[in-house]
Write a structure and sequence with these properties.
globular; Rossmann fold; single chain; 191 residues; EC 2.1.1.170; 7-stranded mixed sheet; transferase; 7 helices; 7 strands; rRNA (guanine-N7-)-methyltransferase activity; alpha/beta; rRNA_ssu_MeTfrase_G
C-alpha cells in the first residue's frame, strides 16, 4: 500500500505539469486506476511477465509491477512511444525499485520481449490493438485488455480483420468496463 501511495503522489505531482491522466480522475485513483489495473492479476494468475502496450501513465503496468514486486520471477515491460511518458515511467520504476523495464518504442516492434501476458488500457480500438498484440500472442502470451462500454462494437469491427476467440468479463472496478481475454488470433485473409 505504501508503494501504491508513493506512485499516486508521483502521478499527482507530475500530472500538474504534464497531462498523464485526466485531473478529475485523480480523486478516484484507488477504484479508477489502481483496482482497475490490479484485477488483471486474477485473470491470468499464472503470468509472471507482462507487457503493457502504450503504458502511458503506468496503468495497468506500474500497478502490476508494484503488486508483483515480491515475486522473484516477475517482470513488467512498460512500452510507450512518447519520450516524456517514458521518462515519468522510468522515474517511478527507479524510485520504487520495481521489477520493470521501460521501452521507448512502438509496441508491435518489440521482437525480443517474451511475456506470459500482454495488456493495454485506453490505447486503441480493438482492431488496431490486436495488431499491436499479435507478435506477443504468436510467441505464446495471453492478452487481457481493459475496455469500456463500447467493447461489443469494437469486437464486431475487429472481426472484419481478425479471427480470434475471446472471453468477455465484467470489470470489478467499473460496472461499465469490461476485460477482454483474447485466445487464438490470426489475421483474416483477403480474397
Amino acid at each position: 500500500m505504501a508503494e501504491l501511495d508513493r506512485f499516486r503522489d508521483m502521478l499527482t505531482e507530475t500530472n500538474a505539469v504534464m497531462n498523464l491522466v485526466g485531473p478529475d480522475t485523480l480523486p478516484d485513483f484507488w477504484s479508477r486506476h489502481a483496482w482497475d489495473s490490479a484485477q488483471l492479476l486474477g485473470m491470468v494468475p499464472e503470468a509472471n511477465t507482462w507487457a503493457d502496450l502504450g503504458a502511458g501513465a503506468g496503468f495497468p503496468g506500474l500497478i502490476l509491477a508494484i503488486l508483483l514486486k515480491d515475486n522473484p520471477d516477475a517482470h513488467v515491460w512498460l512500452i510507450d512511444s512518447l519520450g516524456k511518458r517514458c521518462r515519468f515511467l522510468s522515474t517511478v520504476v527507479e524510485t520504487l525499485e520495481l521489477p520493470a523495464t521501460v521501452i521507448h518504442g512502438r509496441a508491435e516492434e518489440q521482437d525480443d520481449v517474451d511475456v506470459d501476458a500482454v495488456t493495454a488500457r485506453a490505447l486503441a480500438p480493438m482492431e488496431r490493438l490486436l495488431g499491436y498484440a499479435q507478435p506477443y500472442l504468436q510467441r505464446g502470451a495471453q492478452a487481457v485488455f481493459l475496455k469500456g462500454e463500447r467493447v461489443e462494437e469494437e469486437l464486431r469491427e475487429a472481426r472484419k480483420s481478425w479471427h480470434f476467440t475471446h472471453e468477455l468479463r465484467p470489470s470489478q472496478s467499473d460496472p461499465r468496463g469490461r476485460i477482454v481475454h483474447i485466445g487464438s488470433l490470426r489475421r483474416v485473409r483477403s480474397v
